[in-house]
Model the fold of this input.
Amino acid sequence: MKKKAVILLSGGLDSATTLAIAKAEGFDCHALSFKYGQRHAVELERAAAVANDLGAVEHKIAEIDLRLFGGSALTADIAVPKDRSDHDISHGIPITYVPARNTVFLSFALAYAEVIGAYDIYIGVNALDYSGYPDCRPEFIKAYETMANLATAAGAEGGQRISIRTPIIDMTKADIIRKGLDLGVNYAYTLSCYDPTPEGTVCGACDSCILRAKGFAGVGVADPAL
Done:
């Protein structure tokens, strides 16, 4: 039997590539997405399409409401920044950061993994393009993995260690796209925009759209989602 892995899947470019990598590494992939009150909830339709296209064993969508706390342009009535420079994007913590989001998401993934007997959790964090997000950094992942092995039955009973896998954490956006294309990812299914229309038309000007466009330009191919 194949080993099982839980893959955090947003419907974006990074998580789609991460799912493809996990599959290529021989795992049965159990995809997990979140309806968390995000303004770009249309991404969940894309996550379902990606999970189906890449052959995930199952795809679950957990519902939580981070609008209860707000504090982010993605979960509150705060404008999404547009047309920022490369310098501005790479410095400071942007208002699109959702407080403790990856901590919350990984906690759900950890519970899911325990139930299905998985010891590997994949998350598409990237410390290169998103250096301002504190929960996308290697030191956060390392600390969370330590906690996961203290907080679970498998860890407490001396069983197999739980690994938090971050295969694209040190890649440029262009490198991520190249890797995904090599693995057969259809990026036409993905959505990266923070401020799309309800129908999924991208704004083309938020940080995520800018980084995505830069990545495709670096590879020298057209974005199939446009």
User: Anything to note?
Assistant: Residues 4-219 form a domain with the Rossmann fold fold (CATH 3.40.50.620).
